[in-house]
Amino acid sequence: MADPVIGIDLGTTNSLVAYMAPQQANGSAAGTGPVVIPGEDGSNLLPSMVALDENDQIIVGNATRKYLIETPERAVYSIKRLMGRGVEDIHDELKLFPFRLAEDIQPGEVLRIELGEKTFTPPEISAFIVRQLKRNAERFFAGPVTKAVITVPAYFNDAQRQATKDAGRIAGLDVLRLVNEPTAASLAYGLDKKKNGIVAVYDLGGGTFDISILKLHDGIFEVIATNGDTHLGGDDMRWMIFAAIWASTFAAVARPCKPYARLSSRQKLHCQHGIPPGSMSNYRKGSATSERSRANNSSS
Ligand SMILES: Nc1ncnc2c1ncn2[C@@H]1O[C@H](COP(=O)(O)OP(=O)(O)OP(=O)(O)O)[C@@H](O)[C@H]1O
Ligand SMILES: [Mg+2]
Known about the structure:
Blueprint: E1 5-10, E2 14-21, E3 33-37, E4 46-47, E5 49-52, E6 58-60, H1 65-70, E7 75-77, H2 91-96, E8 113-115, E9 118-120, H3 122-141, E10 147-152, H4 158-170, E11 174-180, H5 181-188, E12 197-204, E13 209-217, E14 220-229, H6 234-250, H7 265-272, H8 279-285, H9 287-299
Helix pairs in contact: 3-4, 8-9
Bound molecules: adenosine-5'-triphosphate and magnesium ion.
């Protein structure tokens, strides 16, 4: 396929790349419509995670999981939450997620995130994910891919939209258009064929749970209202479940999170996730500690 245009769903927890298979030469509609392009591992989804390995090489997707566990200061996830935002409006995110901001950022400056000894802006980190998707598409088409449309939440403001476009540009793509996620979902389900009507799209994503009301006229979608909770995605649910299990299992043997300022960056990471410092090392010491923890919990 010459000069294909790819569609990128740049998600909080998972991203993917797809293309619209064109109508066949004989006019048949068979095999047309959206087709997801798998990665080298055969998976349609690319986890939206980026890490820096021991040699300062960038790793993207599933392979970053070991870094998240072993060297969390060299890995980052959910970067979509920081796209196009300033240091003054991300306090909520910092309470809930272990983003490590570069220390010298001034109000009004672009955010920079520490990965090991290096720092990157959110669009640069997203660009690593986009670049991997571009590579997957180039392998699939056996040729260069330079054009894309990228999805964004309907509630994204101009700065967040611009940051998403920047990510595409940094990854070497000409971003022809940004498409609202509820619009992309409606297109994927072929709702544009209906020509006219009102559509309600619920999106339970990794970062948010939202609803958008779309007006469809002559096959064109207009977002007329959108609302939701930006901290009610699968990401948030997973951490709440994890923190609750952790607290009930290990709290008895854990050191407290205060005084916070004296904790190492790894311990701060644990505290931000509701995991008291010391509990992880106790866990790693072996089953004896875990057994003691369980005994303490059951007697309390
Ligand atoms: N097969 C599955 N089983 C269980 N949970 C899943 C499965 N697939 C996805 N999830 C979870 O559902 C949530 C939504 O995933 P999805 O990939 O739609 O989010 P996203 O597109 O990355 O986020 P957003 O649209 O908010 O930016 C995530 O927390 C993900 O971990
Ligand atoms: Mg999504």
